[in-house]
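Protocol step 4 of 5: obtain the predicted structure for the target chain.
Materials: sequence only (see below). No template structures provided, no constraints applied. The aim of this step is simply to have a reference model before the mutagenesis design in step 5. Sequence pasted as it appears in the construct record:
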Amino acid sequence: MRRFSALVVAASVLAAITACSTAPSTDTCETGVNAGNASKTVQASGDIGAAPTVTFPEPLITAGIERSTITAGDGAALGPGQPVILEATILNGTDGSVLQQTAYATAGGSLFTVGDSGLPALGTALECATVGSRVAVVAPAAANSAGGEATSTDSVVYVVDLLKSFPARADGADELPVPGMPSVVSAPDGTPGITLPSGPVPTDYRQSLLQRGTGAEIAADDLVVAKVTAVNWDTKTLSQSTWSTGSTSIIDLSATTVSEGLKQAITGEKVGSRVLAVVPASLATTSDGAPAATLVYVVDILGTVN
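Step 4 output (C-alpha cells):
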C-alpha cells in the first residue's frame, strides 16, 4: 500500500501554515461517494489529530466506495487536486488489523492530494469532505492499491482526520510572457503544457513569473507545498510532473537533494505564484547523484509548512 508523505514538522506548528484554501462550497459540492451500510458502522473514538480507537463489525464488506462523517468539521469542502494535511489509520476490513497508520502528533501530519492515483479509493472518497472532519471510508480491494497487505477479498477501512488544506493550483494574477522564455499554456485543471523555443540549449539561469501571488514570501529554509512540472530541454521529454499522478510535492529548500536551480526559482517568491525557470545543468545537480541536464520548471507555490 502506498505510504503517505510524512511532514517533518511538529504538530504544534500546523496553525502557522501560510496558505488559504480555494475550494467548492459545501452547498454546491457534488461527489459520487456517499455514506453506505458499511461506512456507517465504523466508529472511532479520540480527539481529531490523535490516533483513534476504531471498531466495526467483522468482516466488513462493501461492493463500492463509501464515506461517512464521524465528526463534522466546519472548514471548506475539498475539491479535486487540493492537497490536504491529514492523519489516517488504515485497517483490514476482514479482521480489523491495522495495515498502516500515520505518525499522528509526532510528525505533524501527512500530505495527500484529493484524486491522487496512488491511493485511488481515498483519492476519490475525500472529494467534498470538509476540513476539520474525521471521516470513515470503506472500499473493496479492487478500489485500493494494497500492495499485497490485504487479500483480494478484503475490504479496506480508512479513518481520516482532515487537518488543513491548500489550493489545487496557483491563484495569483497572470503576468505577461517574457520574450525568449519557453511558452506555457494551462489546461482547465491547471496542468501546464510547455513549448520550448528554437535555438541552442541555454547555459545560463533564467526565470520569470507566470502568475504573481500575494501570499507569504518563501524563505530559504521553508518546506514548500508545490505542484511541479519539469521538462528536460536536452531531450525535450517530460522529466517530472506531479500533475500526471494527481499528487503534490513538499520541497525542503534546506535539503541538499534539492538542486540549487530549483531553490533559486522558489526562494523569495510568494505563495500563490506560478514560476517558470530554466535551470542549466550546472545548477541542476543534487547530492543524490541524479544526472544533470538543462531543465525547464513550472512550479505552483501553494503554501508552506514550517
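Step 4 remarks: DSSP finds three helices and 18 strands in the chain. Residues 260-266 form the longest helix (7 residues).
Proceed to step 5.
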